[in-house]
Amino acid sequence: MPHERTADLPQAVPDKVEILSLVETALSWDLDSTALPPVEDALDMTKQFTDYGRVIADDLTRILSIAGDSHARLGAQATLSEAGRRLNLKPLARSAAPRSAAHRAQNLARLVQGLLRATHQVGIIPLCRPALAEEGSRGQRLRPDHPPADPP
């Protein structure tokens, strides 16, 4: 179940480029190493991943409400289910162990990746379908005034 945003609370969510940079950073951490990031840094990333994940989960829910049935839709629904669980976990305390904080940040970074991937996969299917409907089963054009669509 996606987190509901309220209209009276402004959301300061980082942009996609910033989040992807943070995802890359979090996933580069070696949790078996003694050189873990400071707890504050990991928890701040966790908060940003959670906020961004909720926005993407809301977007994905809207996309799924208009998308047709597909294999990508089933995967997206599974990702949304997992997001509903992970994005609503109780935040770790500032006194958390560095490994626990880094592990939570990495798990949420992977979730953000999954949500973005699912949004992309489901979002492109409705755009492809009209063009694919104009092709025959072997890619030949059924309407001469439209070029054949590229395969998805």
Q: Report the mean per-residue pLDDT as an integer.
A: 78
- Provide the number of structural domains: 1
* Helix vs. strand class: mainly alpha
Count of alpha/pi helices: 4
Ends apart, CA distance between termini: 30 Å
**Envelope shape:** elongated
Q: Roughly what fraction of the amino acids lie in strands?
A: under 5%
Gyration radius, rounded: 20 Å
Order of helices and strands, N to C? HHHH
Largest sheet: none
What helical percentage do the residues reach? 55-70%
List the uncertain runs: 1-10, 126-152
Can you count the beta strands? 0
Secondary structure blueprint with pairings:
Layout: H1 16-28, H2 39-66, H3 71-86, H4 98-133
Helix pairs in contact: 1-2, 1-4, 2-3, 2-4, 3-4
Task: Kindly list the characteristics that best describe this protein.
single chain, 152 residues, mainly alpha, 61% helix, elongated, disordered N terminus, disordered C terminus
Structure description:
The chain starts with 15 loop residues before the first helix and ends in a 19-residue tail after the last helix. The chain has one domain. With 152 residues, the chain is mainly alpha-helical. The chain is 61% helix and 0% strand. Helix 1 crosses helix 2 and helix 2 (39-66) packs parallel to helix 4. It has helices at 16-28, 39-66, 71-86, 98-133. It contains four helices and no strands.
